[in-house]
């Protein structure tokens, strides 16, 4: 073989090795998947107001969506009146609507969170003002209202928890003992002294984190309050490996349970024991408004918390503009491992986080920006979905919307690795081809 042929082959060999190593060492901050495609965008509803707040992948490969419905016409069936009700829709893996159910009474009832339970049924939670039809009781204004459903969406049991004021839940999880943990906010000023743990002289208004533990039959085992003298709102919870819980949300208090407020609202994270005893609490943020909305566990046993920030100091290393989506990673003891912002020069926020099969995460929210990490905006808020890897680096993102307000509140990866994101829309142009009333329930399917 000629010498120049040998050199040519060696050159090709080393170039191939170089390219392989470059692909392995590729900067993770570069988006890794650009081929994400829209399968469909659809709006559902009638002549009034509808919205989706939660979506889950179901064990049959399909998905279920929970939100609220006001309409009695259009896509809505078997609704007795025009008050707000929970709206639950079950889809197959091929995006066919299997069934839909409305739940509630004659007053205002709005679904907030949804899980599939270990028996294949469902549990739904939200706020309720009703005390008739599906709702057996109401203590005054908004109560936590939980319903356990069978596999076809029929109610097996339901309970309300609350006092005279606006007590609003945001999260439900099924616990390791097949019970349930509910979390949200207690209206302290109307709670007849609940949440006031200082003294009679120091009773406060505002809200506290309210966490309720139920057994498998929905019977309350314990109820605990956490917070300070101002407004503390719990938005999400997760069970930890030691059977305790981490509860996340926002707080602008700087006393009682809160020891280190950074300024106005912070991400406020608490670890509680299996019986609700406060183990530790941490505040994360800067001098402006920072609010945590969702938590997920990482493959290495730590936790990601997502929300939004208006700060550009203290824990926040960079802010692109008015508000950014903010992600932090913490240890089980609350130590801050890293933090990252995503967004542009306008208002960009995160509302949910869910794990993907490759150990990354989907984040949903909304964006008003056309710069920074964003490229386009169709008008006002666009619904925004982001995929990050396990290190928090951006892999891909997608915004959809029209000239009005469009928002995603939740997103999930299905068993076939397609993605469903849900929220609501007021638009009827650009990406949104139809608006059926005032606000419609919005579904995006990506493939």
Question: How would you sum up this structure, described in words?
Answer:
By secondary structure, the chain is mainly β. It has one domain (48-446): Methylamine Dehydrogenase, Chain H (7 Propeller), CATH 2.130.10.10. 5% of the residues lie in helices and 46% in strands. The protein has one helix and 28 strands. It has one helix spanning 3-24; strands spanning 38-44, 50-57, 63-69, 85-91, 97-103, 109-116, 122-128, 143-149, 155-161, 168-174, 180-187, 207-214, 220-226, 232-239, 245-251, 266-272, 278-284, 290-297, 303-309, 324-330, 336-342, 348-355, 361-367, 382-388, 394-400, 406-413, 419-425, 440-446. The strands form seven sheets. A four-stranded antiparallel β-sheet has the order 1-28-27-26, with no helix packed on it. Strands 2-3-4-5 form a four-stranded antiparallel β-sheet, with no helix packed on it. β4 and β5 form a beta hairpin. The protein is globular and about 50 Å long.
